[in-house]
Amino acid sequence: MTHSSAYRRFLWFLALLLLVSCGGHGSGTGSQPDDAVSLIGQVLSVEDMSPVDGGITITVRSDAGAEEILLFPSLFTYPPPDDETLRLYQIVRQLKPGDRIRATGQPAEEGLRLESLVILPPF
Predict the structure, then answer these.
(1) DSSP assigned state of 121
(2) Which of 1, 15, 33, 41 can pair with 62 through a Cys bridge, CB separation 3.0 to 4.6 Å?
(3) What is the DSSP letter of 37?
C-alpha cells in the first residue's frame, strides 16, 4: 500500500467517523423537533411565579377556539438558563391579557413547554 493510498483511506475513515458521530443530532438553535406544536391565539391570563422561584403559566385561547396552557420554566436552575431561554423570558415577561401571540413548544402532560414566542400586532 502506498503512502497516498493509506492517507486516502485514513481521510475516508475520518469522514465516516464524523458522519456517524453527528448523525441524528439536530442543532440546538432554531431547530424544532417533529413533535413541536405551534398555535396562534389571544392571551387570557399570565401567572408569573418567577419571583418565588417558580415558572410562568400562560393561558391562551387559540384561534381554533381551544384553551391552551403554555409553560415557561423557572429561571432558578442549575445549570443556569442558557441565552436562548433568557431571550425568551424577555418576551414572556411583556405578555398581558389580550395580547395576540404565536407560540411553539413541546407537548407535555400539563400544557405546552414554550420554545418560541412572538407577540403579534393587533388585528
Answers:
(1) P
(2) 41
(3) E
Question: What is the model's pTM?
Answer: 0.70
CB burial readout 56-77, b (16+ within 10 A) else e? bbbbbeeeeeeebebbbbeeee
* Residue 12 CA to its chain's centroid (Å): 36
Helix ranges (H only) for 23-123 are 83-92
pLDDT tens across 80-89, in order? 999 999 999 9
Are the C-beta atoms of residues 58 and 69 closer than 8 Å to each other?
yes
Amino acid making up residue 54: G
Answer yes or no: are the C-beta atoms of 72 and 12 closer than 8 Å: no
Spell out the domain ranges in the chain.
37-120
Tell me which residue of 24, 26, 25, 31 sits closest to 104, measured CA to CA: 31
How many angstroms from the chain centroid is the CA of residue 70? 12
pLDDT in tens, 1-24: 556 777 677 666 656 555 555 544
Cell of 39: 398555535
β-bridge mates for residue 41, sequence order:
62, 101
